[in-house]
Write a structure and sequence with these properties.
Layout: H1 2-27, E1 30-37, H2 42-51, H3 54-57, E2 60-67, H4 70-78, E3 84-87, H5 89-97, E4 102-108, E5 113-117, E6 132-136, H6 142-154, H7 159-162, E7 164-168, H8 170-178, E8 184-187, H9 189-196, E9 200-205, H10 206-212, E10 222-227, H11 228-233, H12 235-254, H13 256-266, H14 271-283, H15 291-313
Parallel strand pairs: 1-2, 1-3, 6-7, 6-8
Antiparallel strand pairs: 3-10, 4-10, 5-8, 5-9
Helix pairs in contact: 2-12, 6-10, 6-15, 9-14
Length: 335
């Protein structure tokens, strides 16, 4: 009886100790508040992080805030409602030129394309002369400015003067294209992938456009944006979250089963659309980010600054120092 009682006492003490250790471990998790668009593709990665507890793996408690628009993202971080958002490095450079200390870590290189219906008579960009082109993102959207620079170089004409542009929201433009209310559409990568699965083909990709413009290294389109001061004060938290994000993207690169798990969240209407979205996402995952990529970004900024002007880059005359977080680095990039 004494031995049995002693065993129970030891077992109880062990369980209490284990519980206390577990609770202590939970308490050590450092929160990071990340604001993202409610229906954006970034949610796929965040879902993988939370499902596999990759944030906890690096001592971080990821707290997600759903936002309704890109503008809301900027307002939320400027107002201190969140610690980090997803935005582009052009915006970061502009903010730094105005003495706001935001900085950027690459998330995705994925770019869109100019798409037309498979039976369209348009075979090349020159065939768009006098046609209607839907353009996502507005007159100073980066892809639109790249396309304008490209046609000036290759055709001797500004795409702005070649076509009648219809600027609008990405989902609306896809609908207009399907109803033949525009002759083609320049849209973001995931909307392009959806069009591809519903009888559309690509005329030119933005990656092809960039190569022709002399940008021969993949550059990030969007990334994690946060205050440099926040990063300095919470270095391990930021690094932990970024590692969790990269682990999640690695899993999505390697595991088809993980894509099946998140398929409902993708809202793919067919198997073909599901595969197109998966493959386009994978193609946009950055493999490295080093000095050559930074140089390519600098060259890209010059192109955008020339065409977009102050509406896009603000007071910036060149890419602002510190736009890319100096504490972020990847493994050695292949030559």
């Amino acid at each position: 009886m004494i031995r049995k009682g002693l065993f129970k006492t030891i077992l109880f003490a062990t369980l209490v100790s284990m519980t206390s250790f577990s609770m202590a471990k939970e308490v050590t998790l450092k929160p990071i508040k990340v604001g993202v668009l409610k229906f954006g593709t970034v949610n796929w990665v965040l879902n993988v992080i939370k499902h596999h507890e990759l944030d906890k793996k690096y001592g971080v408690d990821l707290q997600i805030t759903g936002l309704g628009s890109k503008k809301a993202s900027h307002v939320s971080i400027q107002g201190g409602a969140v610690d980090m958002i997803v935005s582009d490095w052009i915006w970061v450079s502009r903010q730094r030129a105005e003495n706001r200390d935001y900085t950027f870590v690459p998330y995705s290189n994925a770019t869109g394309s100019v798409m037309v219906k498979k039976n369209s008579s348009i075979k090349k960009l020159a065939d768009f002369q006098g046609k209607k082109l839907g353009v996502a993102g507005g007159p100073v959207d980066k892809s639109w400015l790249f396309l304008r620079a490209y046609t000036q170089k290759t055709l001797g004409k500004d795409m702005l003067k070649m076509v009648e542009p219809s600027f609008g929201a990405p989902p609306l433009l896809n609908k207009l294209a399907k109803r033949d209310e525009v002759d083609g559409v320049l849209n973001f990568w995931h909307f392009t992938a959806k069009l591809k699965s519903t009888g559309f083909r690509s005329i030119v990709t933005i990656q092809e456009v960039l190569k022709e413009l002399g940008v021969d290294r993949p550059i990030p389109i969007i990334g994690w944006v946060f205050s440099e001061a926040f990063g300095a004060k919470n270095t391990e938290v930021v690094k932990g979250f970024i590692k969790a994000s990269e682990d999640a993207k690695k899993l999505l690169l390697e595991s088809d089963a993980e894509w099946l798990r998140i398929r409902k969240k993708m809202k793919a209407k067919s198997d073909e659309m599901f595969i197109n979205l998966r493959d386009a996402f994978r193609a946009g995952v950055p493999r490295c980010f080093g000095d050559e990529e930074k140089q390519a970004a600098t060259a890209t900024f010059a192109i955008l600054s020339k065409l977009g002007g102050k509406k896009l880059v603000g007071k910036s005359t060149a890419l602002s120092d510190g736009t890319f977080w100096k504490l972020y680095q990847t493994e050695i990039c292949p030559k």
